[in-house]
Each structure stands twice: as C-alpha cells, then as structure tokens.
C-alpha cells in the first residue's frame, strides 16, 4: 500500500475546514491525524464534517498525543511565526496560509528556521496551483504575448473579514488578507519584483458593517512600477457582496492575455426578455479555486514524498509581505513608496499595535 | 446632389414601420414618397413616426397620386402575388418580404412577371445582409471549416403571430412565417438544395393563447438531407416569450463555426451572488438584425442605382417556399418528404383554404 | 481508519485507464485491488500509470487471486452481458459503462441478474454526475423554465472509434457508442420517455479514415417525439476532429436553458488583430467531464458504503439501448420508428452480426 | 422635404474621413457642403470616398466659397482653439474632436467664444453616444449597483499615433490623445470630478517604432481619488497592436457592472483542438464604436435643428484636459497631483513647447 503523509491541521476555521475537506475527500496520499483549534465548537464542527478523530486545542497537545509528518497552518496571521517555528523545530514540514506573517522580521525567522531544520515550507498562494493561472504563467514564459509590459489583477471578496483581519494594527488589513494573492501573482506572472507602489483607498461600507478600525478601507487600487520597467495594478474590494471575483489581464509587447472569468458555471437561463440572460457567478473562493486547493495540497504532499522544493516558497511569501507594508505606508503617507524604503526601514510597519 | 431612389411602402404594420424607419433615418440615398395601408390608424402612426407625407389606402391610389421607382412589400403573404404583379407591370422594382408567396405557382408568377418587365426583385431574407452571417458565408465558401457536413439553425420568436399567420390554411403557419429564414440560410451557407425533409411539431401554448387553428404548433424540428449529402436541422419556437433568438452552427470536415449569440448588449451586471451575472438578451428581431435591415435596404437601393442583381433573388424565395410546403406535408403525413414530391405534385399544398 | 471499497477494474483501455486514474488520485474511499485486461501492453501501461499492483488477464483469474467488492466494466459492449452476469453471480456490485449492451435481451439479463443477486448496478452516464447538467436537471424539475417543450443535445467526439465500435453489426455504431449519452440526457432532463424517432445520417470521412463498415456514418441527426408531447433533437458527429463538444439547450414554456460550453479554460489570448481572440476548447472528454468522472465513481462507492440505489440504473441503460435500436432502424428504413415497434419486435436489431 | 443641416468638415484625415463617411452614408438630415484640409492628397481621397464636391485648403477659403451651418473639427489638437474661435465668430455650430485643446486657457477661450456667439459646442466623446455606455450610465444613475465606489476603464489603441500626437510637448501625449476618453467616461459614469491623480508610465516600444520624443510612453496607469470619495483607474496602451480595446468596470456598494467586450463579432470558429476557439476582435475604433459615431453626429444635428444643448459640452472637454495636465505632471514629478494644483497653477503645462 502506498505511503500516506500524516498531517496535523492547525486551525479549524473557514480555511482550515476547506483544506481538511480537500485532504479527506480528494487526497488519498495524505491523511489527517490531528486537528487543532482552541475554539471548541469550530473544532467539533470541522472534525465532524471531515471525519477527523483526533482533536486538540493546541499544537503542543497535538505534538504530545499524535503523530504527523507535516502541519497545515490556517490560523490568524499574528500566530504564524510562533507556530511555524515550533513545528519546524520538531522537523515538521509546513504548509502556511497567506499572508506569511505580519512583518519582514517574522518572515525571516520562519525562512531561517525551516531552512535550518531542513523542513519544507510551502506558501498557500493557491493561484500558483490553479489550472488557468498555471497555464497563463507557462505561456507568458514561453513568450506567447511577448515581453510583459503591464498587468492588472483583481481580488474582490464577498464578505467582511473578521475584526482582527480588517484592522491594519492587527493584520495589515485588506492589502494583507486579500491582496497578498495579487502581489504574488504579479511577481510570478511578470517575472519581476516590485520597485515602487502607490495605493489609494476608500471606505464606503465600514461604518454600516461595524468595521470601525482606524484606516479601515473596503476599496483599494495599488499601482506599481516593477523592476523590469513594467507596470502593475491591483484592485481590491472587500466586502464586495456580489460574489467572489479573481481575474487578471496581462499585456505584452505582442498581445494580451485574459485569465479567469466571473461565470461560475456553464448554465445560462432566460425566462424574461426584460431581464435577459442569467448565469451563475462564483459565490465564494472555494468554488472558484476548487482545483487549485486540491492541487496545492497534492503538490505539498508530493514534495514531501519526493523530497522536492515546493513551487511557492518562503521567499515568495516574504515579497508579498513587503508589498503589503509598502502599500500600507503609501496610502498612509499619500505618496509612492519604494520597496527599498521598506527593506531598509528600522520599523517598516509602525502602525502595527504590538510591533 | 446625389440621386435618390423614390420608394412606395406597401404595408405600414410592424415590418413596414421597421423598414420605413430604417429608410428615413439611415438611408440618405432613398426617400419614401408614398405609404400604403388599408388600415387608417396603422397608416397614420407609421406616417407620423417616420415623417412620411403621402399616405394612401391602396397601391392603385398611390400609383395614381404619387411618383416612385420601387415598392417595398410587407403585407400579409396571401397578398404578395397580386401586389408584386401590379407593381412589376408598372415597371417598379420590388423588395418583397418573406415568405415569398403561399405556393410555388404564385412564386412562378412573380418571378416571370418581374423578369418580363425587367424590374429587380429582392427577397427580404435579412440574414443575407447581416454582418455575422455574411462573414460566415464568405468564410465557409473560402474553405475555412472544410466541406460543410451539417448545419443547425434556429429561429425562436418572442410573440404569437397574428391569426392569419399561425393558421396553416391561410399562411402555411410557423414554417412559412418564421422558418422561411432558416430554409434560406441553410441553402445559402451549405451551398446545396434540400433533398428531403422530416418535421416534428408540438403545440404547448396554442390553447391558452387563443391560437385555435387546426394543426397549430409552437415548437418544431425540421431535419433535412441535402442534395450535397450534408444534413440540416432547424428548430422553431414561436411564441417563445424569452426573447428573439436566431443562431446557427455549421460543422465542416475540418471544424465548426458558431454564428450569432443570445447576448443583446455588452453590459453585464451582478448585484446578487445567488442570482449571478445578468446580461441583456435581444428582445425583438429589429434589435438583433439592426444592421441587416439597414444593409438590405441599402443593397436594394444600390442595385437599383447601379442596375445590378440583388443578392437574394426570387429563385431563393421559391426554394424557401418549397421547403415550407414539404415540411408541412411531412408533419401532416408523419413521414420524410422529398422536395421533388412537392415540385411534381398537382396540388402541393392541399391544406390551403383557398388553394 | 475509514473503510475502503475494493474495486476490480475490467478493461484497462482508454476509459478503464481514466476511471483507474480517477480512483487512484481522487477517491480515498476506494482502492483498486485488481486490474483486468487480456491485452498485456495495455494492462501494463495502465497499471504503471495508476500504481496498481495486481494485474490479471481475465475476471476469472482476478476472482481466483484477488479480493474485491465491486467491478468497473469498461470493456467493449459485446462483452458487457457476460461479464456483468459473472460479477453479479459473485455478489459484486457493478459499475457498467455505456452503452449497457447490444440489445434489449442482454439488458434484461443484466437487470434481472443484478436484482436477483442483490448487487448494485450503476450505468456510466457521467452527465448525471456533472455539476452543470445536475444543476440543470434540478432547476428544470423546480419549474424554472416551465414545462419543458423542446430539447437539443449534441455530442461531437474528436477521434474515430475503434473498428468494432463504428460498425453497426458489432456495436450499433455511433448511436450506441456516442449518442447513448444524449438519449439518457433527454429522458432525464425532460422527464419523459421517447415515443418515436427519426434519424438521418451522413458519411463524409469514412473512406479516407478507413472506416469501411457498411452503413458507417459520421454525422447524424436524431429527431424525437417524446411521450410527454415534447420534442427532442440530437446531433452526433464522430470524428469531428475539432475537439470534444457536449452541450444542450432546453426550451420550456417560460424560458430557455443552455447547458455546457465549448470553452475549455478561462484563458483568452490575442496577439494578432486579424485573427482575434483565442480560447482553449475541451480537447477530449476527460477534460470536459473531469468532475463528472470523479463524482460518478464517488457516488458508486458511496452507494455501496451506504447501501443506497445509484442515481443511474439499469432501467436507464435499457431505455438508451432502445433509443439506439429505434434510431438505427429509422435510418435503415428511412422512416420514423415508434419505440414500441422496438419493444415488440421479435428481432429488434437484425443488423447485428451475431444476433 | 426635411431641412438638412449643412456641414463643413475641417480635417480630412482618419477621423475626418470617418465622420464624413458617417454623415454621407447614415445621416439623411445632414449634408456635407465643404471639406477642408491643407494636405491635397488626403483631401482628394476623402472627398472621393464620401462623394463630396467642394474641397478647400482652409476654413477661410471655405467660408468664402461655400455655405454651411456647422463645422466638424478633426484637425490636430494645437489647431483647435483658433479654428473654433474663427467658426464661432461666423455663427457656426461646432462639433469638436477630443482632446478639446492643449491647455485650460485655450479651453476657456473656446467656451467663452461659443457662448458669446450663441453657437452650439459638442465634444467628440463618442462613448457618450455608445449604446452600451449610455445604458450603463442610465442604470448606474438609477441606482442599480448602488453608490459607485470604484471604476476601471481602459483604452488600448492598436497603432502608433503620428509624431505630433505622441510628443508631450506638442500634444500632451497619450493621456491627451487616447486617455481623454477615459477621463470623460469616469466623470460621466461616476457623477464626480477628480480630486487627485497618480500616473505611472512605461516605454517599451518607442525606440523600435521611432517614437523618440522625450517622455514618450506606451503603457500607462492613472489612479484617481474622486471628489465623491470613490476611486478610479485607467489603463492606457498605445500602440498595443492586438486590436482596439475599450472596456470599463464599475463597482458599486451593491454590485458590479461590466461595460464593453473584446469580441468584435458573434462568429466563433475552431478547426484545431490544440488552438481552440477563435473569435474576431475589434480591429479599430470605427468598428467598436460604429453606432456611437452615427449617434453622436445625429445628436449634434438634432441639437442644431431643435436648438437644444448637446449632451457633451465644453465644460466636459475642459475637465478632461485638466485630468490630462494633472496626470502628465504626476508622472513627471513622481507624486500624486491634486486637480486644484492644475487649476491654480500659473503655467499648468510647462512641458508644452510653445506654451
């Protein structure tokens, strides 16, 4: 019988439950031997939904009572560093959800510790495992649209994130929790790091939805000059309410490539000629990136089994965090920020409460 | 100043009004010098809408009081032959709406009389002037998809036609009033005449909509073997209520071509993730074939000014009528009918009341 | 640890390999404990591709040497009856690829034997497990488009099937090997059996591709009257070369529903304004129905684990075979055939060589 | 007979020829009584193409020898002010192509002079007359997507503009010649003026195409904060080579609206399953905005005939010029620029050669 990778899930919330379900239902080469969450009811629900037997309230407890080869970390950002360091210290491979950490120092800690302990580190940028985006990356690399000159990406999420995630003092806000994906996508598809960034934000729904954190924003444009000379733009809207929307357009010297679509199913109906054609939209990210979530976990497991390097590394996670910090500083200071300003700053994120 | 073709409109109803508006608004090279309709209120409305001064209740009256070079005939099918013969006898060029006539003898009369009098005869198969369909025809001819092996066309019309038009005894019904277009499209795009035809019909809405004629049907499939050996299929639905729908697919030995779409405007909205994306549909045929209606009238006028032969002739009209008669006979006799059976029949349409 | 259903794969060819790969990669709740194929090289290839250890040349050998709870039959049609009877006799649950069998008597044998032995029988009509088609069925049932009045489906397959599958004497030809899916889809979506059927065929590529069987055809239209009074039409093209194409349109009294699309990936590129926009098409059926293939096997396994009845039964398989036989007879006799003619015939398929 | 507006065309180049053709072919309510261009060959070509008899080398000559009620100005930007003032002084109504002028002082001169002379002034922002964009504006105003919070527009033009138009010293460059449309669209659809703007540019093709002007750029992002608090983003690419591309997305508190599409014709072909589906793209702007060009001229003529105010005024033109100047200053100074900085500057465009 084939060897299975044993996994401990750290976090049983929305994303933890998504990954747990994926592993249980579609990944025969892995098995969940521990599920960890400090919140009892969430722990019970996800365990039941995914038929997981071993439930624990902390990684420490799980380490004590269960056996596993790897951890999947889906807890809040501010816990990433400590959990990753503890896991790496135990020789466990790490799948880490985005954003990697709150700041660059935490990223450095994670990268160094995983390297020192010889464990794998894969970041949860699932677009890197999405068939549409993967084919796009490959075809851009192959030169199909010529040298890339401009990229536009968007991530519009339907619901308001939890309070800790929409407050820049505890999570770096939407740029971190939502736009991280876009920062990584731009680096990946354009084959270039970001040189400088300018961000505009707007707040239209905060008050009525109870998001009262200072500097809360629900609409955002980030405009970038890349080191290659190309331009990048991201739009972020969260909560957008109308569905989950993640698309990209890349312009090259020879042509244009459109990646993704809003249509969530090939099923169009019309019953009223004054209304017109009606087609499902992707309601939430698990629908849009169903294959990506399966593929990224399979890739992680495959890398463990074959001792290969994952396709999204800590270095990629760190660059996305740098983009988040530069972008946040840009809208706070109302000017374009060079990434090197962030890398060279003594305190690159003074807005963080506990920093 | 440029010479203008003077036109007498015969019929001020829906289609007459559409053509009148087209000429008035978009065809500087023509001018309407007479509008004819026996129904006063319809005559007045269309005259007002299109700023036409000269209104008459009959072609005879118009001939007596106005001057024109051509007629556009949009009256009911059963009047086509007599009007066409009268106009041709006066040396007037003729634009004739589909279906050409009730039976083949009437078609022959029209063809012979126009030829004898040296006047132009153009049939109102507007798809022949539609940019999508024209490009399709050209690209099929050029061999892009290889020898055509199969075609599927559809015309689904939103509303119930008037009583005379949905009774096979007075108009040959939907096959004539709606499907005529498809018969012509198939001959044109496939470059082949029809050899035999099998028709199935269904009646789902007749009773509730007051269409009580015997043999009334609102859903229809026509399946054909063409002389070239290729196959053809038409679907007809009228009233379909959901909008106006006219599309085609052509399969060739090398590939497939899709012509037309349901989307009526490039404007997509979503405000509810449970509903999804909403896009306008073409509500009625004037929207779907807006350019085709302009183009076909301009083509007619251009043919008159340059003494050229129109791109849709009486022969094309006659073949469509033959398809209508064979198709009607097929569903009445529940068997495939060869076109030659229609051409050779003493009475090819015994169901016609006055035939 | 969760109980796994042990499966013996009968057939290691294209479809057998597809199902084997699906089970191995995406179905943790099942495991393949035997792979059977008389052709050594095919057996080796699929076993290697799917990491299957136990390989046998016959079901008898597998029964002797391995343990399993169920069989997945993907062998040629003419072997279905005997394999199914042998498996059922051993108490094995059966997943059976379409078409069910060569004729109604074989279908009856399979249905009776599985019932007598109390084993499950699921037909491989994967559209019944496709998210698009399933949502369509549900929404039609819920009345969204009103009473269904007309359905059009198509299956166009890219490649020429093997010789036994394109010869009506050994397999009932395209109607069986390709169009079976459409017959089932129509019954399922329309909620009605077929009353009569008329089929036209054409042969454009046979000679040049070496398909020399008498009555070979590569283009086909089947037009049906259903018992409900609604109409149905199927187009079949095989080989169509241009990709894999499976779509449907359902018209109801209130509206229209379009199911499926040709676009195989949300990735559009243009690099030449004279060519335009280029988007991937589904190349083969495994791409188009990726989720359906996973879902149908998961459903089969779930039914075994929970002792439930599969959603596609032997009765469904038998009706599709009846459609195949009536359709074949229709184009041979050039007339519409009532299904009851098939059910009441002494020899419903006299064209079968060994019948 | 209906009264016709007599028009003098100023400029017989690409845009002048487009408008001349539109009037000649689709606008019976107007007639071209003079065509003016200093370049003989261009004058001859356009006159021949549009069957215009009276040709002149200057407006002065045309005023001397011909009679007309209005002028359509399509000459280079730097000539707009003087031509508009001369025409207005003669009591002629003015249709003026975008951009309105080189700077705000010229805009003021034009607005004041037309007002003083009581002549109409309509700006050539054809999107205001495009059916898709008009329906979008109406539906946004009606509140369908809620209060608008974000807009993204793009104009990507296929070819390199003439030297005077890609040099910021003679024309303000791409922001003026291409992006003017987007500035107007944003103000119009969002119902708000721009408060500040940040622009990033890149130059990828200049050298190889012979565009050697200092500060030449062919890729551009403009990010804006509007007075309403909403955000705006424009992408500009020229030359993009792949076709003509003009689309917009508007996000509101309740939903999203997508305006326009790349597909230029409803005609999809596939003949190679490795390539996929191929659909025409809009090759040039006259194809994309065919109806808009007809509608805007008809609107201008209608306004003259009915003494109404055009839907796009000099004020709209002036705001777009202000956006151009602020945007240009932004990328030169590498910082966001407030529009009020432009309005209050002594020399708002110091980069202009003759300013």
Can you describe this structure?
The structure is a homotetramer of 355-residue chains. Chain A is α/β, with parallel strands linked by helices. Chain A has helices spanning 14-26, 40-49, 59-65, 80-89, 104-117, 131-141, 163-166, 168-171, 173-177, 180-190, 206-209, 285-288, 290-306, 314-333, 339-344; strands spanning 5-10, 30-36, 55-56, 70-73, 93-96, 121-123, 148-156, 194-202, 219-226, 231-237, 245-252, 256-259, 267-270, 277-279, 337-338. In chain A, the strands form two sheets. A seven-stranded mixed β-sheet of chain A has the order 12-11-7-10-9-8-15. Chain A starts with a strand and ends in an 11-residue tail after the last helix. The model of chain A has no long low-confidence stretch (mean pLDDT 97). The interface between B and D is medium-sized, with 33 and 33 residues.
Task: List the keywords.
15 helices; seven-stranded mixed sheet; alpha/beta; 15 strands; globular; six-stranded parallel sheet; 355 residues; homotetramer
Quick gist of this model?
Chain A has about 350 residues and is α/β, with parallel strands linked by helices. In chain A, about 40% of the residues lie in helices and about 25% in strands. Chain A has helices at about 15-25, 40-50, 60-65, 80-90, 105-115, 130-140, 165, 170, 175, 180-190, 205-210, 285-290, 290-305, 315-335, 340-345; strands spanning about 5-10, 30-35, 55, 70-75, 95, 120-125, 150-155, 195-200, 220-225, 230-235, 245-250, 255-260, 265-270, 275-280, 335-340.
Oligomer: homotetramer
**Uncertain segments of chain A of ≥5 residues (pLDDT<50)?**
none
Mean pLDDT of chain A comes to 97
Count of alpha/pi helices of chain A = 15
Distance between the termini of chain A: 49 Å
Largest sheet of chain A: 7 strands, mixed
Strand content of chain A: 15-25%
Rg over CA atoms of chain A = 20 Å
Number of strands of chain A: 15
Helix content, binned percent of chain A: 25-40%
Q: Outline of chain A, from the CA principal axes?
A: globular
Q: Biggest sheet of chain A: strands side by side, in what order? A: 12-11-7-10-9-8-15
Order of helices and strands of chain A: EHEHEHEHEHEHEHHHHEHEEEEEEHHHEH
Content-based structural category of chain A = alpha/beta
Biggest interface, chains and residues, is: A-D, 39 and 38 residues
């Amino acid at each position: 019988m084939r060897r299975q990778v044993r996994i401990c899930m750290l976090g049983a919330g929305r994303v933890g439950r998504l990954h747990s379900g994926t592993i249980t239902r579609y990944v025969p080469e892995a098995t969940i031997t521990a599920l960890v969450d400090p919140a009892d009811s969430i722990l019970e629900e996800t365990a039941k939904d995914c038929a997981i037997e071993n439930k624990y309230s902390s990684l420490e407890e799980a380490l004590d009572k269960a056996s596993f080869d790897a951890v999947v970390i889906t807890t809040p950002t501010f816990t990433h560093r400590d959990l990753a360091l503890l896991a790496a210290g135990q020789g466990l491979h790490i799948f880490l959800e985005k954003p990697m950490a709150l700041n660059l120092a935490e990223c450095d800690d994670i990268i160094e510790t995983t390297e020192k302990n010889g464990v794998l580190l894969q970041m949860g940028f699932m677009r890197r495992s999405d068939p549409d985006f993967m084919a796009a990356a490959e075809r851009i690399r192959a030169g199909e649209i010529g040298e890339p000159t401009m990229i536009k990406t968007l991530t519009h999420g339907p619901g308001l994130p939890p309070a800790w995630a929409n407050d820049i003092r505890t999570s770096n806000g939407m740029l971190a929790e939502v736009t991280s994906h876009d920062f990584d996508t731009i680096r990946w598809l354009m084959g270039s790091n970001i040189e400088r960034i300018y961000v505009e934000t707007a707040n239209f729904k905060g008050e009525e939805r109870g998001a009262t954190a200072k500097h809360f924003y629900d609409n955002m444009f980030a405009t970038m000059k890349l080191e290659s000379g190309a331009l990048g733009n991201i739009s972020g809207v969260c909560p957008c309410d109308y569905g989950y929307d993640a698309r990209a357009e890349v312009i090259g010297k020879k042509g244009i490539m459109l990646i993704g679509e809003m249509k969530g199913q090939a099923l169009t109906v019309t019953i009223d000629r004054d209304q017109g054609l009606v087609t499902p939209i992707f309601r939430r990210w698990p629908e849009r990136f169903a294959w990506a979530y399966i593929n990224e976990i399979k890739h992680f497991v495959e890398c463990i089994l074959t001792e290969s390097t994952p396709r999204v590394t800590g270095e990629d996670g760190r660059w996305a965090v740098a983009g988040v910090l530069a972008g946040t500083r840009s809208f706070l200071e109302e000017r374009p920020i060079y990434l090197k300003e962030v890398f060279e700053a003594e305190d690159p994120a003074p807005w963080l409460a506990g920093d």
